[in-house]
Design brief:
By secondary structure, this protein is an alpha/beta fold. The protein has nine helices and 14 strands. Helices cover 32% and strands 28% of the residues.
Length: 307
């Protein structure tokens, strides 16, 4: 059994390869060759315990992820053989989850954003946002990045860290402003309970990727933006209709219907449903994370580290 900590995982990941691993896993899921364990959530004193996972029946391998979100958050992923029941590897730490979330964003953006997207907007300047920009910049010819955060130290770290990592000009802003109107792709990576950007700062053909909110109480994007999008997509309908505040709200008010919502198993098979008469040409993708994604990334990293 390998113990693979954050320090054992290289920083400069090839997201074209990893997003390809996710795509393959979702194709398997769509055809019944892999299976997903949806998030089981227990609310306790001081926080929330989550457990999720997946099994690849073809490769006879599975993964379970568990974490407790309280004062902070950390993760533990175990990778095991479904043929021998042997535990192959344990991944403590946050890095696998950051890579998984970024790879899912890269896959969704590759399917839903314009091929000539050159301006990327990002709200939030934490570690997750950093990895998101690196991932999307590998699958689109990004020339300009506009990032907003209220914390000056995060913005400085963010801008310095990205230099030399992406071939784009970086503009750091203390608040969302008119520069975001230029964005072809918009990423929101916050834990806000209220929308972080108004419609007046979003282009009509902008592709939106919301990754930060993960409880029914959280909302990064306002209802009108979501309901006005031509394509509404999520990684998993089962997960987001239970846990993603924006999707729960949009469905409950009736401005979108469940049958209009795409999920990854639709997207990877080329079955993208478009909403007729929507005022926005752009697409909206909500990612909350599913166990099959953790399996795909853990399996890839295990093979890489093992050599």
């Amino acid at each position: 059994m390998l113990l693979i900590g954050d320090q054992d995982i290289q920083d400069d990941q090839d997201y074209r390869v990893i997003s390809g691993e996710l795509k393959l896993q979702f194709i398997k899921l769509a055809s019944g060759r892999s299976r997903n364990l949806y998030r089981t959530r227990i609310e306790g004193k001081g926080g929330i315990l989550d457990i999720m996972g997946g099994i690849d029946d073809e490769e006879r391998i599975g993964a379970v992820k568990q974490y407790f979100f309280g004062r902070s958050i950390d993760f533990l992923i175990s990778l095991f053989s479904t043929e021998t029941s042997e535990v192959l590897a344990i991944f403590p730490g946050k890095k696998v989850t950051r890579i998984r979330t970024a790879a899912a964003s890269a896959l969704a953006a590759d399917i839903l954003s314009r091929k000539d997207s050159r301006v990327l907007g990002c709200i939030g300047a934490g570690y997750q946002a950093y990895e998101q920009i690196r991932a999307v910049s590998q699958i689109r010819p990004i020339e300009k990045v506009v990032v907003a955060d209220t914390d000056p130290s995060k913005l400085k770290f963010f801008s310095t860290g990205l230099k030399g990592k992406i071939d784009a000009d970086i503009f750091a802003e203390s608040e969302v402003n008119h520069k975001f109107k230029e964005a072809d792709i918009l990423i929101t990576a916050t834990t806000s309970s209220t929308p972080v950007i108004g419609e007046e700062f979003i282009g009509t053909d902008c592709y939106i990727n919301s990754i930060g909110s993960y409880t029914p109480q959280m909302r990064e994007i306002d209802r009108s933006t979501i309901c006005g999008s031509t394509v509404v997509a999520v990684d998993s309908i089962e997960e987001t209709t239970r846990s993603a505040g924006e999707i729960i709200d949009a469905l409950s008010c009736g401005c979108i219907k469940i049958e209009e919502v795409n999920q990854f198993t639709d997207l990877v098979m080329g079955n993208v449903k478009k909403r007729k008469g929507a005022p926005r040409e752009g697409s909206y993708f909500k990612s909350i994370g599913v166990g099959i994604e953790d399996l795909a990334v853990a399996k890839y990293l295990y093979s890489y580290v093992k050599g």
